[in-house]
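Try it yourself: sequence plus protoporphyrin IX containing FE, in.
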Amino acid sequence: MESASLPVGHAGEHEHHGPPDFHRSARIDQTVLGILIFILSEIMLFASFFAAYFFIRVVVSPDSWPPAGVELPVLIAGINTVILVSSSFTVHYALEAIKHNNHRGLRLGLGMTWLLGATFLFIQLNEYVHIGFSARDGAFGSIFYGLTGLHGAHVFVGLLLLTFANIRAWRGHFGPEQKNHLGVEVPGIYWHFVDIMWIVVFVTIYVI
Amino acid sequence: MAVALRQPGWYRGALGALLGAAFGFGLVVALRAISGLDVFQTEQTGYPHVIVPLITTPFGFLFGFGAFDYWFRWAAGKPTVPEDHANHGATRWQDYFKFNTDHKVIGIQYVVTTFGFFLIGGLLALLIRAELAQPGTQIVDANVYNGLFSTHAVVMIFLFIIPMFAGIANYVLPLMIGAPDMAFPRLNALSFWLLPIAGIIFLGSFLAPGGAFDAGWTGYAPLSAGAPLGQSFFNIGVQFAGASSIATALNFLVTIITMRAPGMNLWRMPLLVWANLSTSLLVVGATPFIAGAQFMVLFERALGMNFFQFLEGGDVISYQHIFWFYSHPAVYIMMLPGFGIISEIISTHSRKPVFGYRLMALALIGIVVLSYSVWAHHMFVAGMFDWLRVPIMITTLLIAVPTGIKIFSWLGTMFYGKIHTYSTSMLFALGFIVTFLIGGISGVMVGMVPLDIHMSDTYFIVAHIHFVLFGGSVFTIFAGIYHWFPKMTGRMYDEKLGRVHFWGTMIGTWGTFVPQHWIGLDGMPRRVADYASQYGDWNLVISVFAFILGTVQLVFVYNMIVSWRFGPKAGNNPWRANSIEWQVSSPPPVFNFDQIPRVVGGPYEYGTPGARHAIMGDEDELELPEPKPSTVAGPA
Ligand code: HEM
Ligand SMILES: [Cu+2]
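Structure, out:
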């Protein structure tokens, strides 16, 4: 922000000029790299809960898993998985659309993704209400709620990011160049991570 | 006033904190009312009315303080002003109390704040030593004692050593790689402001009913799951400190990968940059594990969940596995940046290139990889799987190899060098090598299962950790501060006082921690307020030296404050060092450079006539002698 009325000489030199452009020593965008590193540490956060899961299930090795009398709604969770996984495709579609300057496609894709994510979260909460055991019911209850809850919290954060992206998409802020659609790409990367993580959670908790 | 409340700053921050507290409290009340619970009853350890506001208040403060203004504007879809640098640089002391986005200001904020925590942690340590000076209980009872050693360790580890290194690197690393700032300046500022918050939470636990958290810095469950309210302060404070270090590490990684000056390939990076690259890899990979562990303990305490309760089908040992999977890498998080500092100083003051530069960098990476494979050496006597002991013993002994490489390389650097000890930083670097060496050797000893069975949980461990943490990390921190003090302040410190400080610290450290090996081998247990009278004499000696060690730090404080204000002007490059931060003015200009420098050679080519590391933007290139081909590292 160079002010037009700089006095002549060196007087205006120190305060008002901005920093020199840094030299790009890598081709990857900084924000994209940042979110990838962040996801790495998110994976490790999940890993700590999976470690607890491993100890409770494999090392303690209870007689039955899930405990007798507990029936996990595998079918509903499976349908929910399909819902969440399909939202990965819609967010990818949105990104491709804006790369081709297709604003309608962008809005459609982002809107669909948001709705699918919200549906997932709603079904999950509904499952909590009807499942018949609580987080206090033994180590099984704790790790079930611990892992699905941790994941649910991530879906919630992802949805927040997607909300912002939706708002800006409707205001027409994005464009085909990468620096103009980072606001779609970065939440999208995070969303893919949330999806893949769900598949891991689903398989460990419900399937095996 | 109304205007002040609308502008980001302390007034709005205070208002935000109040609103945050009210929100948290209201949330608990409302949720309890909805679920038909007694609105105000507090469970024995749960205390939701305290711990939820403990989480929401800091967020309220940060909102008010202006940490999220930009992101809010972005989230609401408003046009975001491109960085206008309004929050950049410091012209008055008040600028250090703002949400400042300048890496140099943030660096100083870090260094000063964390040093304050060092003094607080030191006072706690002196209280511990006062109690232990004689057998029996004189000053504090056993419960308070447990709180003292727990808070001492937590303050020193999470609020001093780890963030101090982040602070020093914050200041010098962007300059060293020729970047105008860190990659994410706002995130950088946020990381800093999370620290005082964590500090207030940790120390605030002294006010909690039942006293400060007292399950050790390790906070083992199930002990911690049933401890009084103070333990929750630990669980929550760690989240803030951990988030701060993850965010900083992410920032360092992105900065190092994407913002290096032209010509600075990996093999031309100063070893401090390598060290912070490695440390950051450890932080982003391991810190989430302590976050997870503390979340689980908090859930047990506040929500009655059962991850670690045997009777409920939980696994009692699993906490230790998860905790140490963070905390062993964490000991290297507390050491690798120091290794980097030492390499800079030894090479500069021996006027010789770092011996085996590439191997030094690779050793760092080797330590990173191996660190993830040794966590269970803290659990040899915990009753974990028998079969895991020997493999872990082997990896533990292996990790001493890259560590040894570093020591030999420093010695090799000094060999036939022109060693200058006119700088206190070099004295601390030399003191570091001998002291850390002892700590490394005792580490190898306790890494051996049969020896560890004898020595675990005795004062031998206390001796080991202080030789590596005080003789290692703290010595490197002092070395670093003395080394870059002229750069940060533009002034010289008093060398005589520096010498007094060094020798006092050296004698204090050895006097305090050497005898602990002996009483440890003799069987004196750690973490107990009282001890058998046969250990009385040595403990008195230890306490006397500890007080010498504590007192001599005041010399440092005095030296730093007075020199910062009145010291003689330092000039740009008092140590005649090669790396880029010394080629700019002291202190550096607001945006570091007018033009990004060009890197033309390795960072340590001392003794090679005409060798250059970097050509600064304002130099007339044509008049420069052609730089000699690099002896340390060619283009990779
Ligand atoms: C040569 C390298 C090292 C080896 C082989 C080593 C080995 C060990 C072992 C086996 C223990 C567990 C002893 C026990 O509790 O029975 C231990 C404890 C510890 N080490 Fe090291 N160590 C090394 C270097 C370091 C470094 C560089 C640091 C930090 C800068 C460090 C900090 C600690 C701490 C803080 C503990 C005590 C944890 C507690 O509170 O129980 N060590 N070390
Ligand atoms: Cu260890």
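One thing you can check immediately is this: Chain B touches chain A through 60 residues (CB under 8 Å).
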